[in-house]
Each structure stands twice: as structure tokens, then as C-alpha cells.
Queue: 2 jobs
Job 1
Amino acid sequence: MIKVNVNEKLVEVEPGATVMDAAKKAGVDIPTLCHHPKLHPYGACRLCLVEVEGARTLVPSCTAPATDNMVVHTDTPRVKKARNFVLSMLFSERNHFCMYCQATDGDCELQNAAYAEDMNSWPFTPHYLPYAVDASHPDFVLDNNRCILCRRCVRTCGELIGNYTLGFEERGSSSFLVADSGVPLGESTCISCGNCVQFCPTGAFLDRRSAYQGRLTDLTHTESVCVDCSLGCIRDVQTRDNRLVRIDGALEGEVNQGLLCERGRYKPFREDRERVNTPLIRRNGQLVPASWEEALNVVVTQLKANGSDDISALISPRQSVEAFNAFSEFFRDNFQAKQVGLLNKEQTAMVGVKLAEEFGLFESPVTALQSCDSALLLGADIEDQHQVAGFMLKRQIEGGLKLYRDDECDQPAVVDEFKANATADSAIVLGKCFVKQDNIQAVRDILAWASKTNVKVVLLKGKANAYAAALFGVAPCDREISSQFTYMALGDQHSCQNTLACLEQAAFKVVQAAYQCDLTDMADIVLPAKTCFEEEGHYLSGDGKLNLNRQALQADNQAKSTAEVIALLAGKLGLTLKSDWKAALTKRPTTLTLAL
Amino acid sequence: MAKPKVATDWLAGCAGCHMSFLDIDERIVDLLKLVDLRSSPITDLKEPDEDGVDVGILEGGITNTYNEEVAIKMRKRCKILVALGDCAVFGGVPAMRNFCGADAALKRAYIEAESNDDSAKIPSNPELSTTVPVKPVSDVVKVDVFLPGCAPSADAIFAVLADLANGKMPEVKGEINNWH
């Protein structure tokens, strides 16, 4: 351990710690703009200069390693003068006029730093050189005029995402941010993950939807799990007046560490479907509004009229554990429905749970991918779904990670090459194209090989709550099974060919959906459902961690959650639902240890 | 001791800072017990007393030679000069013009504006002042107190004026230092 004296306070830090780390441990706040806890120290802004006894000059605390018996002063007149000078230079370089910037009043780290130094004017005349604004991207605008050249965005794009889209052209004060080799952002290799926007300390990146919608500090922040894929990224859902304004990654998120992908951050804003606002009943061929009472009475009559062999109940993998619990108890335990299935084609989670009976806890958490020396992607989708897992791998390629990809599961040579070079630090990522019931022997073979060689295995489990569904025994629905009565809890999921085929054959169709789609058009009864932002519920991540999706918005229509609707139906039938969802989750063997 | 004399004026601003000053509401009665408000855009007297005032307050940035004259006259006639608001302190909203130049801005406003017809022309009377690159008041004369804000809140203005009325040099920091 290294002993450091910061402002007369003695602290001990690990070798390799920086002066800033030591100050943090001593409870001393050093202002900085370019430094970010999730990025490597860079030393671009010089705001964190401190005085070290014996050193010839002031040193940047973010990059200077702490040494034994170092004596650091962070608040001397010399330091304060330098800090003021650094800020004055930054303000003079570009257009940092706060009164017409969207990041002003609490959201801008540059402005906050100036306030902290009691700056109330600029000693230098600004350099009025305009830069072009790049507004070619659908989600955000890049304004070089507001840039302080801290390179947080460039480092986020490279170090954390591994995408290397952003970079700098020119040198010194003429430096400006470009995408690729200077193409418009909207036409670049940008994957629209938006992490650069989140990490930018100033108003250089302008989020189109939250800009000028009020200070981020004034928005209501709800920490919630993302319900797109099953990775379990934690996001900071920001709302105002019951309106979704912005979504950021939560720095505390164990899997995502502050990052989000396009699907988690921007997809909810692209929602353009019409809501289902009231229950609808088909009368004379037309769907007409009805009360919940009327609609549920029809459902109950139909349920009673059909035997268990005639009932199919299908639920979306975006629904909560609570919904699965009520749904499976109601339809499976009480009605012995012929099919209680998942509106999902991906079989990864289900097959994984099945193989846990043979292989035990064969899986590593997805965070194991954060440090490995080679990885085999077998039928795994990390570019559309599970993008954050993709970031973990992509960002290591620069450091020498060897990636073997067999996306379509048709290149045994690639798999063999991986096997030949694998070490204990290698990982296999299995995805939906490989982990399928009809390919189960191949999965068994690779699991057996992995357990023999100690190579880590990660299963990408598809949609948000697919793992929990598998543990509830709710398997992907079989479109070949036809029923007289089909109940579909779609929630806010999109319809697809598969869901359509599952519904088409039923004589009587109940669709519980947040949005109108071809499924609701076909239904006999439509029940308005809540969106993932309107209801609260638990989700089991692919790593077996139970996360809470907190309610961020109030449904402003008659929507009810699946659990609420099932409870109402059960009440009408004189049934009491009593299943404990935590206990239900632990009935089957798991692929890794659950944290419930 | 006589009440300190205060004079105010506006340069290239929107009058918002003076409106914010009036937002101190009934506290203006307390303030007027302490100070003698002389010239200002909201009083009849329009020029600071020739024999000088104690406190001069300027709103707005410098955009032309007339603004320069007003600033220089105010500086000459006051002991303590306060730059009030973001335009006076930094150049503010009028300084946006510097990114394109005065000629382009005049052309856009007087010739290309949607409401103009073919007879539109840029005013060129020799009586008019000429444009200069937009700058804060402190680029023309020495400023003693900077009170930024767009506009500074009534509370901030009251705090600064109350200090000055009590013969204290105000410190603009913390809550009242808000650039918006």
C-alpha cells in the first residue's frame, strides 16, 4: 500500500492508483471534465491540476500515479489560479455561451465547474470561429461549437463500445470531432448506441428528444431494468409530466456499467403504434368499445365453454415474473390448458434449462465476457439483440481478443480452430441459432467439451424475461397446436408471423395488448395492456439476477397489467391465485446460481 | 451621509435585466430608502448626473459605437460600475452575431427577412452609429462587479444592490452566480 497525504489527510491506496483516486479516498473532490469513472485516465482538460510537494509543476491528478509519502494540496491559491485559467481558456475557445445552450442550468459539467470556482465573468474574449453542426443523425446532433476536446465521446466509442466511429481531425484548438473519416454521423459506422451523448460533459451532443425539455436534474428519474433483451441492463428512465423524455444507462448497472444499446435507449422513442385504450368486443364483425366488466364476462363464458384440451394461453417474454406466475397458475394449474406457451421463437433459455438437468450449473455470467482472450460466437446475435454483450467483446479486440464467429452454425472449421487455441480464459457464447431443440446433441457436445477444458460458456437467452419463462416451464409456443380458445397476453410486444400463426387458428381469440396490430384486428376480445413503462414487475436476467422494472409512467387509459387481469378473471371464476413466484422460479434446475 | 446615487442604462440587451430588477417588487421601497435612483430607462432622467453617481449599472452588450459612448460616459460618471446580465458580462445573445459577422446579420434582418418587400434596404444614415464586433462591457471599460444571468434573478439583483447601498462591495458567487 502507498501512503498519500491529501490536504493534510493521510490515506492508503493500492499501487497504481492515481492522485485523484487517493483524493477521492480522502474525501477530497477534485474538479475534472475529461475524466470519467468508466474510462481510462486521459489528462486532456487539465482542470484537475494539483500541487504536489517537491514537484516542479502542477500535475494532472487524473493521470499522475500516487507515490509513497506524496504530499498533495488541491486547494492552494496556486492550484485555484491554474484552475481558473484552464476554465478561462476553455470558455474562450469556442461558443460556450450558456444562455442559448440546451445543456445549461445543471446539466453542463463545464458550467458547474465554473460555478464551483466562483467564476462570474470571462477574462478572455472568445474566439468566434464557427464550426458546422452535424444534424444528420436521427437521435442526436453533434455541435462542435460546444466541444471542449475532452475526448470522452471518442473514448466511449472506442474503449467501451469498441466501435471506433468517433475521432478527431486537425490538431490543437482547431481539432474537431468527426465520424469515421469525416462523413456525416447519420451516414457513418455509428451504431446509434448514444453512449457518447450520455458521457459528453457539455452540450456538444444534443439529444434530440430531451433537448430543451428542461434540466435533466428536474426530470423524474426511475431506475429500471431494460426489458428488451435478457442481459439485464439497468437504465435511468427520465420522465416529465407523465411523458418519456430520455433514457440513459445507469452507471451502477452490474452488466451494462452505464452503457446502453440503441434498442434500450432509443427504441421506445420510435414507438408509433396506436394504443388500445379500452376493452373491445367484436359485435357484428366490428370491434366496439366495452367496459372491463362486459369484456371479462365474455372471456369467462368462453373459458367455461371450452374444455382444457381446447385452451391455448400464450404470453410475451417481455412480461414480468409476476405475470408469468399468475398466467401459468391460472391457465395451467387451474384449467390444465393444452398449451401455456411463450410468444417467442428463441429456444435458448428453454433448452438451457433442460440441459441444466444433465450439466448442472454449466454457465458463466455474461460479465465473464469482460475479460477473455478468445471467444467463440456460436449462432449468437450480439449486433441486434444483446448488443451490450457485443460491446464487452468488441472493445477487447484492440487489446488482442481473438473472436471466432460461426453465426449460422455452418462453419465447423471455425469452431475447430477456436477449440485448438482455447485457454482457460476463453469463452463460448451460445445463441439462438445454435441452442435449439433440434440441435440439442450439438449443444451437449460443446457443453461437454467446455466442461472438460474449463472454457466458460455464456448463453444469450433472447428476450427480456425468457429465462424466467423457461424456469416457469413456459416454452416457446408451438404454432402447430390449434385450439378453440386462445388467450394472448401480448403486452407491448410487436406482432410477427409466428404470433399471427398462433392466433389465426383459434375459433375464439382474446388479445391483451398495449398497441393495435394485426393480432388485435383479428381478435374477438381486445383488452388494453400496460406498456413496460407503465407497470412494475420483476425480470430475471440471463445471469440469474432478479431485477425490478419500476413504473415510470401512469397509463392514461383503461390499461391493466396481465397480473391484474388474470386476478379479475380468477375472481369471476371463484378462484384464488396463491402461487408464490419466488418459489415457482426455483422449481427447476438452473444454468447458473440465481440471485433472487 | 447622503444616500448613494445609482444610475442605470441599457445597451444591446432585451430590457429583461431591468424587468428582473423591477421583479424585486415591494422591496424597491426599501431599496429607495437606501439609494437615490437617478437616471435609468425607467425614470425620466436619461443620463447620469454630470457630477457623478456612486453606482452605475449597465445592461446589454456592446454592438456599436453608440453603445461604446454610453459605456464610456457611464464609467466616467460612476465610482462603481456593475455589468448586469449575460450580455453585459459575456456579450450574450447579441454576440451570436460574431459567428457570422455584422454584415450578414444586417442583410438577413433588413433585406432577407420574410416580411420585407423589394424596397428593403439596410439603414445607412450618417447619423447612425456603426457596428463593432459584439463584446462585453468589460472589453470597453473597467467593470467592478459582474452579475451574470439571463436575466439575473430579482433576488440576485436585490442582494447586489443592497450590498452596494450599504457601502459593501458585493461578492457574486454561490446562489446568485447563475449564468442560466
Note: The helical segments of chain B are 16-22, 27-34, 65-77, 86-90, 102-110, 154-165.
Job 2
Amino acid sequence: MTLDQLKAGDSATIKAVGGQGPLRLRLLDMGLIPRTRVTMRKVAPLGDPIEIHLRGYELTLRKEDAKNIEVEI
Amino acid sequence: MVFALAGNQNCGKTTLFNALTGSNQHVGNFPGVTVEQKSGKIRGAKDCTVVDLPGIYSIRPYTGEEIVARDFILDSKPDGIINIVDATNIERNLYLTLQLLELHIPMVLALNMMDEVRANCGSVDVKALSERLGIPVVPISAAKNEGVSELVDQAVNVAKNKLYPAVTDFCPVGPVHRCIHSVAHIIEDHALRAGISPRFCAAKLIEGDESVIKRLELDRNELELLEHSIVEMENETGLDRNEALADMRYAFIEKAVAESVVKCRESREHLRSLKIDSVLTGKYTALPVFFCVLFLVFWLTFNVIGNALSDWLSLGIDRVTALADGGLAAYGINPIVRSLIIDGVFAGVGGVLSFLPIIVTLFFFLSILEDTGYMARVAFVMDKPLRRIGLSGRSFVPMLIGFGCSVPAIMATRTLASERDRKLTILLTPYMSCSAKIPIYAVFSAAFFPGREAFVMIALYASGIVLGVIVALLLNKTAFRGQPVPFVMELPNYRLPSLKSVALLLWEKARDFLQRAFTIIFLATVVIWFLQSFDTRLNAVTDSSFSLLASVGRLISPIFIPVGFADWRVATGLVTGFTAKEAVVSTLSVLLGTSVADLSSALSGLFTPLSAVSFLIFTLLYTPCAAAVATIRKELKSGIATLGVVVLQCLVAWLAAFSVYQIGGLLL
């Protein structure tokens, strides 16, 4: 499954980071790399973006970008 | 000696910069971009300057901030780097550290927020971390000014004695290690010739950084060799090149952190943040809370504090003006000179100063919202609607402030992380109808649409927003085509803002505004005074309809024939509106020979309801006032671009008014 499909409170491990260009590099730089644990915190009130927790901090990204990140619960 | 201060966003970099330099700061610009460069002399160290680099997460050639930071380090070759790291979020912060280490420049690590770590019964084995990274590590608390002087001593020491980072390899022997070393070997000569560390170049070349390829002047043969060893690494690791390097860095960091950092419980600050967020970004509470905060800020700024300060200020200005006027009259000075001083200089200065209370108050609230971490939440909540026009949630607050006053709105775009978003936001701000236009709307809607004033107002505000959206969509397809900057943003823990930082920011904004805007607004006022006071033969006029200004009005009024208000008095009013929008109403009342209160009835002779609507649309959209233009000039760093904004606004205004007048004429 992909990162955007996690429910609030769910934790998962990143399997692969897809996508391309600056956005993908930014995700890698922020620590979203394979074998990292992430937890879904919440979806923004208007339905997008999402807030996740990883490496001890909170990060927000858009659903369309989270779709490129494959995770495994 | 010159030091570069580098670190992530939200790690306390500004606080440390303030602690290092005190108020002895110089604000300039990095060459060629609108990114602000702050530098200052370090207190307690002789001849040491520190340059505050933009907050970045990595050294990449994509955002303006990253390019600026990297070019500064590569081109100006600082004597040392002070890398500030948030100890409560150490893993991600060290990611930048590893890239800085590769640059092979004397460096110290400032481990910030150590007070918070200790308060949560955590600890960092500074010695172990320092050995791991091969550079001195100094625990500090920038907010409490702890450890800062030791940090300065260490920084001066490494720079003076040229103590380079002792560790340069971050990976165990394996495919990645092999690849980095073979690339470094191939390009070593080029790198040394360019004066950049081969190890840094190797990592950046593997990541495909075009600008490094250019700097090193590699030939096709060498590039093929590089590609070959990179592909080999990709095949062996099963990761692509960027993943492989990110993985290598994070693996090293995880090990270093496991060895040196003890975290015995979830930090109180983090738990508190989660609790606050359950309300501030909660599903049902986020929007109501946001609009309440916004209303409160606006109400306090424009109605309570700003008003009171403005009243005091104008009282003071009136006193001084009256005193000067009396003095000049008693002295028997030439009436023209007296008029210049009182109506030109004093009115100009008064005009400039009248903006100040609002700007200072608004920035007081804005900096508190920013420093506490709430602004990042606003961006999180409001991102979705703004994405459609090619912006991110970060632009919401500056644009909203535009409804109060364009000047602080444009100044507030500084908080935007990307140069592209900042420019686009500045261009859209004039479409948010500012509060100075309300008197115009009020007079006209009372004259032509009695009983429906509220509807007219709402329609005007909505038209501005709709046109802004259309312009944004057009700009996205033309001037701002291409990839918008990724919206991947940290939501930092909520923190109490430091009074010192807020005070410094207010002082900076106030000084900034007075210095830069003063000249232009002042000049504009004096020019308008001159045009108002003399006729074409430079005789002082008694009847304002013979003034140069009236001639200008007569000259340009034909432009307004197709939009329905070709009267020279209206054109003159629009010209004076450039100094401040309120002036449109007062000029019209002077030229029509009535008081502002009776203006409504006098206007019915000049306008039909349709041309009144056309006029309102025009005033909604035409050139921002002198103060706003001066601010745009400052933020865009280009006179031509600013002129472009003014011309574009006038053109859009005319076209919109034209459509309204012509289409309305056909329908009615």
C-alpha cells in the first residue's frame, strides 16, 4: 500500500520512494528512505495534505506526493 | 575571519545569530537573488563576522535558498562553518551536517536546545558525538544564551588553526564506499583546481548536481567513467543513486545517535505540541480557530492598537505641524515655501508615519504566530485551496493581510521559503482590496446604490479575489511555468517566542520601512504638491482647477472615455490616489467644490450607476499606492519588475472597467 492510505494512528515501514525530480530528493533529504518507520498523524481538515511522524519529528506532505511512497504495515 | 552559520529551519538559527551578534547586524542581499543576507560582527571575538545562511535541509541545487547557501560557501570560502543542530530533532538535523563536513572547511557543531533535552532527562555524550563527526561539538541553548561564548571560542580556534573535519568517510566498505572513492579519484584534479573538496564533489556528482559538473569542467570521457561506476553501485545495492546516498548518510547518523544520545522519555514539549495540535489542526476546530485568530489580529491591529497609535501619532504630527506653521507665518516666510514645508514635507512625512503603527502592530502579531510555530499549521490547514493557483498554504497569511494593507502584506512574504512563491504572492497581493479603498467604495455606493452598500462592498472584494485567481492561473501558465517548489514542510514543536527576537524583528521592519519607503513616498508627495500648487507657467495657483495636476488630469482623461468616466476631475483624483488611496475621495471633493459629506450628491452629475461601477472596479485594481510600490520595489529587487507590476495593474484595471462598462451598456 502507499503512505496516503494509512489511517490516523497507523505505523508502517517505508519500502520504496517513487516519484521524481526535486520533490523526491526533498523527501529523501527529510529522512523518508526505505526501512524508515512512519506514523500517520492526521489528514488536514480540508482533506489534504497529511501529517506524518518520523525520526522524532512531524512532517506534512500532500497526498498526491505520498502516493509515490510505498509502505508496509 | 568570516563564519557561515548554517542549519535547518526551525532549529533556533535566528536566535543564535542574534545571540552571536547582538543588535549589530547588517542586512543585505545574496548576489542576484531576493534572498536576504544577514551578517554581523561576533561579540567578544576580534574581527569575526558571521553570515546567516538561509535555513536549509540539504545542499541541493533546487530552491533559491539552497543555491544561495551553497554558492556562498563555495564562492566566498568562509574561514569556518558554525552548524547549528536542534538536539531534540537530531537525526534529521545531522543530515545537513554530513554534507557540510564533506566540504572540508573548519567547522563546529552547535548542539542547540540542550536545556530541553536535559529537562526531559535525556543526555548527549558530547565527546562521543564529537569523535564520531570529527569536529568539536558545543552544547548550547541559544534562547538562554548558554554555551554561546564557548561556541565562539571553539569556532575561532578551528578557523585560526585550520582544523579540518577529521572524519570524511561515512560509510563502511561496500559498493557505495567504492563508488564515492572511485568518483573522487577521477575528478580529484578538477576539484582541486576549482578549489572545492573532492569528496564533496564526488557526492554531488553521484547525485547528478549539474552545477558541480559545470564548475569542474568535466569532459565527456570522464562523465562516462563516472556514470559507469555509479550504475555499478546502483546494481550492487539495488537502490538508485540518490536513495543510496541518503541511505548511507542516515545509516551513519542512526549509528552515531545510538552511541551518543540517550532519550529516556517522550519530550514534554512534543507531547504538549500534539495536544495543542489536536485543537489547532483538528478536523472540526482548525478552521474556526484560525478565523478567530485572524479576526483578533485584524481587529487589534486596525481597530484597537493601530488606531490608538495612529491617533497619538497624528495628534503629535498635528501639533508639530501647527507649531511649525505658526513659526513660519510669524517669521513671514514666502507663502510658497511655507506651503512646500507644510503641505509638501510635513504632509509627506505624516503620510509615511501614518503607516508605521499598523506595520509594527501587525508584525508584532505575525512574528509571534511565526515563532510559536502556528504559521506552519496555517499552511498545513490552508494548503488545499491555494494549491489550485500554484501556491502553497504558506502564502495564505500574507495575502490575507493584503485586505488590511498591502505594505505589511508584501513585507510578510519574507516568511515564504521559496523565491518563486514569494514573487507570485507579491504579484497577487494588490488584488486583495486594501482598507484604504473603503472610503471610495463607501462614498460611491452611498451615492449610486443606497441601501445596497454592503452588497457592493462584498461584490468588489469578491471581484478582486476572482481576478487575482485568474491572474494567478495565467501567470502559472506563463511567467511562473514549471515545477512549483515541493510542499514538504516540517511542523515544528510549539515554542514560546523569544521577546528579543520579536523586538529585533519589529525594529528591523520599522527601520526597513522608514528607510526605503520614505524616499519614494516622500518624493511622490512633494511631486503631487508641486503639481497641485503651480500652473503650467509655474505661477502659484489659487483655484485648483488651473493647477498642473489638473492639466495632467485633462491630459490623461481621454484614456477613460471607453470606460465611462472621462471627466478631468476624476482623472486628477485617480492620480492623487497614488500617494494614498484615501486621497481619491478628498481630491474629488476639493475639485467638485463640496465637502466630503456632500460628495455623494455632487457625484451623480459626473457618473451614471454603470460608470460608477466601472470606476469602482478601476480603483479596486489600478496601481498600488506609493508606499506599496516602494515595498514591492524593495522585495522584488528590480525597478523594471516593479514598473511592470504598476503597468500591469493599470492595464488589468482598465480592461476590467472597460468590460464592465461596455458589456453593461449592452445589457442595460
Note: Chain B has a mean pLDDT of 87.
